[in-house]
Amino acid sequence: MTIKELTKSKIPIVKINPKLDKLAGKVLFPQKLEEANHVLKTVGMPSEKLSRKK
């Protein structure tokens, strides 16, 4: 593809750094994850709340 074709394209071009592979499967913020899981268990997903109101 040429640069002109890429700029007209609706598809984003993303380059992923392979150094990030070492972080795959690791929990970087365990306290935040625990808090988010607690909120999801007690409150539920936002889409569930919206579909119940209708």
Quickly list its features.
54 residues; mainly alpha; flat
Q: Mean pLDDT score, rounded? A: 83
Task: Return the structural class.
Answer: mainly alpha
Unreliable stretches covering 5 or more consecutive residues? none
Q: Helix fraction?
A: 40-55%
Q: Quick one: biggest sheet?
A: none
- SS elements, strand count: 0
Oligomer: single chain
N- and C-termini, Cα separation: 47 Å
Outline: flat
Q: Given the structure, what is the number of helices?
A: 3
Query: What gyration radius follows from the Cα positions, in whole Å?
Result: 20 Å
Order of helices and strands: HHH
Strand composition percent: under 5%
How is this structure best described in words?
The protein has 54 residues and is an all-alpha fold. It has a domain at 19-54. 50% of the residues lie in helices and 0% in strands. The chain has three helices and no strands. The protein has helices at 3-8, 30-42, 46-53. The chain is flat. It starts with a helix and ends with a helix. The model has no long low-confidence stretch (mean pLDDT 83).
Topology, please?
Layout lengths: L2 H6 L21 H13 L3 H8 L1
Short description:
The protein is an all-alpha fold and 54 residues long. It is built from 3 helices and no strands. Helix content is 50%, strand content 0%.
